[in-house]
Design brief:
Number of helices: 3
Largest sheet: 4 strands, antiparallel
Helix content: 25-40%
Strand order of the largest sheet: 1-3-4-2
CATH topology of the domain at 27-81: Arc Repressor Mutant, subunit A
Shape: globular
Oligomer: single chain
Structural class: alpha+beta
Length: 82
């Protein structure tokens, strides 16, 4: 039985609302809730929902909820420091 990769080369995350080029290979594919991202960044959850697109964060819709890949949040945060 062949194992499926989480991120096939060149396809990124299908079904995700993206405002940037596909993320580089590597990092954590763990999906974070808006509350977890807000806690990590030290901002209110309301701010995440209001600003994630303006900030250029990549999010996936899971039903009516937003989920953020941990590596995308960390990459975004690294870009803010430079």
């Amino acid at each position: 039985m062949t194992r499926r990769r989480l991120d096939p080369p060149g396809q990124g995350e299908r079904g995700c609302a993206r405002r940037q080029v596909a993320a580089p290979v590597g990092g954590s594919n763990r999906l974070l809730t808006a509350a977890e991202v807000a806690d990590y960044l030290g901002v209110p959850v309301k701010t995440i929902y209001a600003r994630w697109q303006d900030w250029g964060l990549t999010a996936c819709r899971v039903g009516r909820h937003l989920r953020f890949r941990q590596r995308h949040v960390e990459d975004w945060l690294d870009r803010q420091e430079h």
